[in-house]
Design the sequence.
């Protein structure tokens, strides 16, 4: 992890479990049992789906109770990790019985978790009988960062991302997003405002968070709420491939740190890597980033740049990147308003991209540094438990044809899909 305030890890899927992939095969049977979603026919509300404002409405309008009950219940759930209304002793018997009838507190099911020697920790979480995602906790000096997913799979098809090879199934619910934080925080014995182990959240796991806007914004509001996880705005980071209209909406509705996956300084190259660039080219994207930064004085935007050998790691691209970043600083009228995060590409089976040599990575970084830019290279963490960028896997019931096409491609090229 680099020394910026927006540490990151990406969650990528490496394919459905294969024979020989012991961990995932074992997990596969358990995914079938997992269900954080409320079963069909059960009309009860999952409290995990509600942020403070909607929980207050739920108490007042749906239950005919006082709004402040929401605060008590949030503390029980997010500070004390209670999921049983019977344990919420300051609520009164009648209210507890009413809640049991009308609501549940249901987190995603933990299928397994694994600890790395370096303190990194990952969880495979079942979202429904067919789908599982992973969340990863990365401790660093004085900081603990959780990388959270927003969708099962991803629809954007970025060419170098292994999540794309899995196709897309569905958006995660608010409960499934905040549930990842809850499970990690409970495991860590996190107590907001006291023993805080979880200090940062990055929406950098599977999926495009801005394509699941409402659920992501509601979950981030619980992360930032004192009755939730009490994280400062700048400690919650949303990473996007560049869904321009939603960047503006995010600026209106939220105040979190923004990270943008840039990866290339020209439209031709960027479109070949991030197809979404056809719709929202670099100039349009940079305009939206400027608007986002201008909403709040002193706020910066992080630009992620995954370095791929002989694709975007040449001096010419470093020059182009410097120009874009300097232009951004000039428009926002703040030095270092643009922060660059360099991510060495993490290979996965069947990919046509490769990681540049360490020398090439250093040379690229040096070119940015010489232009006066801070551009940390993201450090690999947790690789002994396959938790490093690009090593994570979940299970996706693909509703597109992409995972089948990827498997066909792997077979044709004689590559095993097993991690
Ligand atoms: N959809 C969001 C979150 C994606 S994951 C977004 O696009 O920003 C976070 C970062 O990891 C993104 O910048 C993504 O482009 C990058 N990434 C994806 N696959 C990678 C790989 N194999 N190696 C290195 N970085 C990768």
Sequence:
């Amino acid at each position: 992890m680099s020394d910026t305030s927006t540490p990151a890890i990406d969650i990528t899927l490496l394919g459905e479990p294969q024979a020989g992939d012991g961990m995932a095969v074992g997990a596969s049977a358990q995914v079938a049992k997992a269900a954080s979603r409320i079963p069909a026919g059960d009309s009860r509300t999952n409290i995990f789906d509600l942020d403070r404002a909607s929980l207050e409405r739920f108490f007042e309008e749906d239950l005919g109770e006082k709004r402040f009950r929401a605060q008590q219940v949030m503390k029980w759930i997010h500070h004390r990790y209670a999921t049983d209304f019977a344990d919420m002793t300051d609520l009164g018997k009648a209210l507890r019985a009413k809640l049991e009838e009308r609501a549940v507190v249901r987190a995603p099911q933990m299928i397994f978790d694994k600890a790395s020697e370096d303190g990194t920790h990952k969880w495979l979480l079942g979202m429904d009988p067919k789908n599982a995602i992973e969340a990863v906790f990365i401790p660093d000096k004085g900081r603990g960062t959780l990388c959270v997913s927003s969708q099962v799979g991803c629809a954007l098809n970025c060419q170098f991302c292994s999540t794309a090879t899995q196709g897309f199934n569905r958006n995660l619910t608010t409960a499934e997003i905040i549930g990842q934080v809850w499970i990690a925080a409970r495991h860590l014995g996190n107590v907001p405002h006291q023993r805080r182990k979880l200090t940062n959240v990055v929406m950098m796991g599977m999926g495009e968070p801005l394509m699941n806007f409402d659920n992501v914004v509601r979950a981030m509001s619980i992360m930032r709420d004192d009755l939730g996880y009490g994280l400062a705005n700048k400690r919650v980071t949303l990473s996007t491939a560049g869904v321009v209209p939603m960047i503006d909406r995010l600026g209106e509705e939220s105040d979190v740190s923004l990270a943008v996956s840039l990866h290339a300084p020209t439209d031709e190259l960027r479109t070949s890597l991030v197809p979404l660039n056809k719709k929202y080219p670099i100039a349009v994207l940079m305009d939206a980033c400027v608007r986002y930064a201008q909403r709040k004085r002193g706020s910066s935007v992080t630009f992620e740049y995954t370095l791929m050998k002989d694709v975007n790691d040449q001096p010419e691209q470093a020059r182009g990147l410097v120009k874009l970043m300097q232009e951004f600083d000039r428009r926002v009228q703040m030095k270092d308003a643009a922060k660059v995060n360099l991510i060495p590409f993490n290979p996965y089976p069947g990919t046509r991209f490769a990681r540049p040599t360490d020398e090439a990575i250093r040379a690229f970084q040096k070119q940015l540094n010489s232009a006066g830019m801070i551009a940390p290279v993201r450090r690999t963490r947790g690789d002994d438990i396959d938790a490093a960028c690009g090593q994570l896997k979940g299970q996706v019931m693909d509703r597109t044809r992409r995972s089948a096409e990827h498997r066909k491609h792997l077979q044709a090229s004689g590559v095993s899909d097993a991690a």
Summary: Residues 29-35+108-413 form a domain with the TIM Barrel fold (CATH 3.20.20.70). The mean pLDDT is 87. The pocket of S-adenosyl-L-homocysteine is lined by residues 10, 12, 158, 160-162, 204, 208, 239-241, 261, 304, 306, 343, 345-346, 389-390 (CB under 6 Å). The longest helix spans residues 315-332.
